[in-house]
TrEMBL record:
Its main location: membrane. The keyword ATP-binding applies. It is a peripheral membrane protein. GO terms for molecular function: ATP binding; ATP hydrolysis activity. Keywords: ATP-binding, Cell membrane, Membrane, Nucleotide-binding, Transport. It holds the Pfam family oligo_HPY. Belongs to the ABC transporter superfamily. This is Peptide/nickel transport system ATP-binding protein. The keyword Membrane applies. GO terms for cellular component: plasma membrane. Residues 4-244 form the ABC transporter domain. It is found in: Cell membrane. Signal peptide: none annotated.
């Protein structure tokens, strides 16, 4: 059974249809990317699943999380699911965090809101801060948001999102505001801890490094979907072709981006890998795990099909 099943989702503002006929599924543990140019409808799709559409914007169609409807249900019911069964990490943590509340209290609050006792919630807060690899969790719990770096704040948001063990995590450009090295650490962490993931980005390199499957949106519709490998090596839609051409991704046989860092011994690369001797990040499982290069660009290091 799918964790998330979306069928014929549409989003409207008055008579204007902003998102139409969006259908997809995410299975347990699956990491799915949602890419597309600015204004293509990625955020509205995610917000409609969370029941967080802006005033005057409405969703129709069907979306269900583990069989429970998310669209067209009363706010009271959605409130019980939001932050517990599905949660979301946004681009800018500073706007999502309360500036005058200590970090620990904010992490604990999302658990007490969903029924945990205060002692239980605070005890778990330290574990969660540790799980998102924040150093000195007790000190961080005492801090206010402005005392943390952007990367640390985004880890706090991830801890909050994970607090109630959701079935699905939605991330909307969670690393855009971070510098490249911090971005890579955050992406690795998200890929590791997400139960099932819908990951929104306009960056193909990022989606290739985090997700197994990808949906491409254009003009409010999903125009293409498939595994990263299928979509990035054999794009069917002209828009996807354009996106790939404009990106620094390097599927088999095409131009490589500048790769920084030391190149490991040739024996480290799998046989037949097109990037053999050139790729500093290839590992024996590189076919399914494209990696970010030292300069933050992704390469898709899979074996040639033949
Ligand atoms: N509150 C709103 N009222 C009317 N139109 C809106 C509203 N919010 C978004 N839109 C429009 O809906 C379309 C899709 O917006 P959305 O934010 O989902 O795009 P996006 O793909 O997430 O873009 P970006 O990558 O820039 O965040 C855009 O044309 C946008 O102008």
């Amino acid at each position: 059974m799918s964790t998330l099943k979306v069928e014929g989702l549409a989003v409207r503002a008055d008579a204007v249809e902003l998102v139409r006929d969006v259908s997809f599924e995410i299975g347990p543990g699956e990491r799915v990317g949602l890419i597309g140019e600015s204004g293509s409808g990625k955020s509205l799709t995610a917000l409609s699943l969370m029941g967080l559409l802006p005033e005057g914007v409405t969703a129709s169609g069907r979306a269900a999380l583990d069989g429970r409807d998310l669209v067209g249900v009363p706010e009271k019911r959605l409130k019980r699911l939001r932050g517990r069964d599905l949660s979301m990490v946004f681009q800018e943590p500073m706007t999502a965090l309360n500036p005058v509340m200590r970090i620990g209290a904010q992490v604990a609050e999302v658990m007490t809101l969903h029924g945990a006792s205060r002692p239980q919630a605070f005890a778990r807060t330290y574990d969660l801060l540790e799980r998102v690899r924040l150093p000195h969790p007790r000190q961080i719990a005492q801090a206010y948001p402005h005392q943390l770096s952007g990367g640390q704040r985004q880890r706090v948001m991830l801890a909050i999102a994970l607090a109630n063990e959701p079935q699905l995590l939605i991330c909307d450009e969670p690393t855009t505001a971070l510098d490249v090295t911090v971005q890579k650490q955050m992406l690795d962490l998200i890929a590791e801890v997400a139960p099932a993931l819908l990951f929104i980005t306009h960056d193909l390199a990022v989606v290739a490094s985090v997700c197994e499957r990808v949906l491409v949106m254009y003009g409010g519709r999903v125009v293409e979907s498939g595994t990263i490998r299928e979509v990035f090596t054999r794009p069917r839609h002209r828009y996807t072709e354009g996106l790939l051409a404009a990106s620094k991704l390097t599927p088999r046989g095409t131009r490589l981006p500048t790769i920084q860092g030391s190149v490991p011994a040739a024996g480290h690369f799998p046989r037949g890998c097109v990037f053999r001797n050139r790729c500093p990040h290839a590992t024996p499982d590189c076919e399914t795990a494209p990696a970010l290069t030292g300069d933050g660009h992704a390469h898709a290091c899979w074996h040639p099909a033949d």
